[in-house]
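Example for tutorial group B:
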């Protein structure tokens, strides 16, 4: 398995990243507590994403048979559904606030020493990537999310033009922001990417590349060497590794797959090999994410 910064020898970290038992030290608690308020909501958000059924049939009926009764039934279902979409969006905005704090804590100095010493913060970093990848996978597989919100906005606009006074929990300003958020195939990962690119208080780009490359390489190592017996933890590592690799690719020129990237911070081929060879859980979507969200990824590598 490739190492960091073009080292094609097998990468072996100098520490064991214990995702199963990591607890915050006193030195970590200030940042940890700020971030954990957001991270602990992930499971609830994912539960709602798994249960999201949408209003497809009601929308189709309201369009094909546009009676007042059908339109009302559709609207009555859309309003609480959009409230759920608003909750997802607000969670993304919470990520925007805490992710830069966490990234600064783990990537400002020597990442290897920081990861080893502050494993609870490192786990939170992995958890955000795990969540972003899992959320975006469900979003891409459920077109009702985008379709519901699009129809909601069209209906809302029509109601306002007709002079109706409609009471909803989503302002026009928020609706515009939500439209931009849901327009991306991978909205949560895009939020993380934008955090790094827009926050001027972040560590320099090279420090972030080093830190996130280490995150990806360590997680791939944990899976490749079967450091955990729990398949859920191994999938957690693979999602974290893939998400971190995609962000590194966006920061590193010419990209982790580019044939001239002799000193690429991540061995993309090794990462891909571990994803392909993993049999304890589904990795097709992670492989596709790596393929379609990185620069110069040779399609032949993914066959």
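The residue assignment follows.
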């Amino acid at each position: 398995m490739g190492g960091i910064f073009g080292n094609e020898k097998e990468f072996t970290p100098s520490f064991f990243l214990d995702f199963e038992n990591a607890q915050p030290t006193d030195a970590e608690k200030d940042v940890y507590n700020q971030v954990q308020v957001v991270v602990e909501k992930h499971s609830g958000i994912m539960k709602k994403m798994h249960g999201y059924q949408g209003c497809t049939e009601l929308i189709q009926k309201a369009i094909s048979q546009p009676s007042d009764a059908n339109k009302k039934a559709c609207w009555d279902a859309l309003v609480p559904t959009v409230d759920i979409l608003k909750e997802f969006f607000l969670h993304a905005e919470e990520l925007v606030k805490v992710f830069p704090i966490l990234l600064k804590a783990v990537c400002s100095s020597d990442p290897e020493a920081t990861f080893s010493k502050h494993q609870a913060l490192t786990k939170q970093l992995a958890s955000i990537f795990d969540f972003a990848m899992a959320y975006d996978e469900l979003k891409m597989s459920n077109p009702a999310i985008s379709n519901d919100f699009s129809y909601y906005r069209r209906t809302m606009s029509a109601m306002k033009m007709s002079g109706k006074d409609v009471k909803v929990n989503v302002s026009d300003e928020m609706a515009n922001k939500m439209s931009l958020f849901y327009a991306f195939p991978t909205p949560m990962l895009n939020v993380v990417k934008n955090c790094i690119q827009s926050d001027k208080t972040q560590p320099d780009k090279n420090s972030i590349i080093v830190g996130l490359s280490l995150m990806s390489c360590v997680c791939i190592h944990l899976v490749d060497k079967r450091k955990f017996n729990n398949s859920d933890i191994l999938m957690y590592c693979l999602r974290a590794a893939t998400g971190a690799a995609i962000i590194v690719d966006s920061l590193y020129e010419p990209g982790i797959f580019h044939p001239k990237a002799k000193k690429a911070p991540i061995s993309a081929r090794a990462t891909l090999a571990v994803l392909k060879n993993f049999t304890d859980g589904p990795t097709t979507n992670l492989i596709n994410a790596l393929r379609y969200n990185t620069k110069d990824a040779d399609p032949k590598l993914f066959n």
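The first helix runs from residue 29 to 39. Compare this with the pattern of hydrophobic and polar residues in the output above.
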